[in-house]
Amino acid sequence: MKYLYQAAVIMLFTFAGEALAKFVPVPLPAAIWGMLLLFAALCLGIVKTEQIKECSAFLVAILPALFVAPTVGLMDQAGALLSKLPAILLIIVVSTFLTLLVSGKATQFAQKRFRKEGRK
Asked: 29, 84, 102, 120: least surrounded by Cβ within 10 Å?
């Protein structure tokens, strides 16, 4: 029964994210809305981590299996993807470089700030 309750809590936030995506004119996927709502609820103490801990761990454990269907879809569309391969590779290289750059700068900023405050 505990797992059913935990899954229901997660699904409630998923549903709320779907509703927000329909009614709020911000181009954000419903899954992101749901995660933001759940994150806010966790930060505000509305939902305790113990209330979703086991179900969350299960979902993370089976995450690779959840990517099987999209991967099969990509393989099915290989011809269409190959025609756009140079553009896709360029996007991958540029986005990877930008991610590394932003992550590195954010880490350096955080390290400097923590050193100023005397934290380790």
From this structure: 120
Helices (H), 1-120: 2-23, 30-44, 53-61, 63-66, 68-76, 78-83, 85-117
Q: Which long-range contacts (CB under 8 A, 24 or more apart) does 37-45 make?
A: 37/13, 38/10, 38/13, 41/13
The pLDDT tens digits for 86-99 are 999 999 999 999 99
Structure tokens given for 108? 């350096």
For the chain, which ranges sit under pLDDT 50? none
Exposure letters 19-34 (e unless 16+ CB within 10 A, then b): ebbeeeeeeeebeebb
Going 79 to 30 to 55 to 44, the CA torsion angle's sign is: positive
The upper half-sphere exposure of residue 84, i.e. CA atoms within 13 Å in the direction of its Cβ, equals 7
**pLDDT at residue 76 in the model:** 86
Spell out the domain ranges in the chain.
1-64, 76-120
Tokens 């360029």 correspond to 90
